[in-house]
Amino acid sequence: MFEDEGYSLDTLAVRAGQSRSPEGEHSEALYLTSSYVFPSAAEAAARFTGESTGNVYSRYTNPTVRMFEQRIAALEGGEAAVATASGMAAILSLCMALLKSGDKVICSRSVFGTTTALFTRYMEKFGVRVAFVDLTDMHSWQGALDGDTKLLFMETPSNPLCEVADIRQLADLAHSAGALLVVDNCFCTPALQRPLELGADIVVHSATKYLDGQGRCVGGVAVGSKEFMDELVIFLRTAGPSMSPFNAWVFLKGLETLNLRMQAHCRNALALAWWLDEQAAVEKVNYAGLPKHPGHLLAAKQQSAFGGVLSFTVRGGREEAWKVIDNCRIFSCTANLGDAKSTIVHPATTTHGRLSEEDKARAGITENLIRVSVGLEDIGDLQRDLDRGLAQL
């Protein structure tokens, strides 16, 4: 296997996980089948019990999905991966496989709004206690720990304020309490940051974002040790929030250019952040690539670059933020990110719209906040596009 030979990330992104059929195809094969034919009844029985390895049913064994799982595991430096129908399905599977009633999760307030809703509306419903803390406040994380804590969950950089947490420090804290650290690595991808190497136990992704890179398919994945991923496979086999083979094939194609795309996203985002920081209508720019960002030095230490997502606040409120968004012609007004096309969104009324006003305030989601995912268009064109909206203020 290519992932066992010490190859670089660029090589793994193109080659890891591929297995060829007797037909000798060069591109990865797309296995569009729901089930598999067994050579005998005895072999069928052996596969269903796990006594024999091999495909059983595409809900949890499919060669195309398996190739994607092996490739992203190699890129993240994990032993195994489990692909799911969406990023939220990956987080749900993780919770259902590893938590039980009476357990406690400590989660950063600075996460995707739907992640917050999953923990509060559903995990708490089934007896899992959840505590929310400030991402960068180690005392808050420490203070929330107790004997029932099983998971610490965070995004770094965070969505949408681009806050940065010390992964190694939080991993040490989690392990001191017998808990696991889970990191949503969606904003960075393994091209920029490898949390498992910094001590995290599990990494999750919305593959919908940068792993695809062109906004074509929805999917998710969790990466970690074989022990933890085996638990997720059992849940996947039972509950079925599975990735489709076609989507896995699309994500495999996306991974081939992941590093190249991420470097281009980062260059554009850094240039746009500097430009926004000079605009009179902009109050504040949230991007760790700017030296004045409080997480700049930490991000420079644990990331190879600063990512393609930034946010900024404009002078005014919702009306002014919407005016900027509505006057853009290149930026797409959509909640997705990680696309070759630049996107722009108002978090307070979309991605974080289901949060209470109190929770929005605690998470720093203000009415004048705009999030931008910087795509691969010409940076001058992107600046002129945003200037059209800012000029209205």
Automatic annotation (TrEMBL):
Q: What is this enzyme's class at the first EC digit?
A: transferase
One Pfam family of this chain: Cys_Met_Meta_PP
A GO molecular-function annotation: carbon-sulfur lyase activity
**Which GO annotations describe the biological process of this protein?**
'de novo' L-methionine biosynthetic process; homocysteine biosynthetic process; transsulfuration
Question: Does the keyword Membrane belong to this entry?
Answer: no
Give UniProt keywords alphabetically: Amino-acid biosynthesis, Methionine biosynthesis, Pyridoxal phosphate, Transferase
Swiss-Prot/TrEMBL cofactor(s): pyridoxal 5'-phosphate
- The residue stretches assigned to a coiled coil in this entry are none
N6-(pyridoxal phosphate)lysine: residues bearing it: K209
The similarity comment for this entry is:
Belongs to the trans-sulfuration enzymes family. MetZ subfamily.
Biological role stated in the UniProt entry:
Catalyzes the formation of L-homocysteine from O-succinyl-L-homoserine (OSHS) and hydrogen sulfide.
Task: State how it assembles.
Answer: Homotetramer.
The protein's name in its UniProt record: O-succinylhomoserine sulfhydrylase
